[in-house]
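pasting for the record
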Amino acid sequence: WLKRSSDVHVHTRQRYNLEELRAKLVNSGFRIVKISYINFLLLPPAILDYVLEKITKPKNTHSPLVNLPELLNLILAFILSLESLILSITNIPFGLGLIAICKKAS
């Protein structure tokens, strides 16, 4: 879900949910230290952007990489630092991406 024109632009092959990623890592011989969703605080604006893109139906794909105004960049960095604090305490049940910290199984 949330597949966007930017996914086409950067040739995203597949998106995984947490359980799919966990299974792939374990089946590949890794021991999972931590696995969680990330960017959950950015999920509401991403959903809004997704809906607007579906309504406007852009004809061309576009790169998701853009230069942001410094103030917006500072705000986003602050949001991500809050998420980092949350991740140090608990896992996040939903979000835009996944993060996994693994070790090779001995």
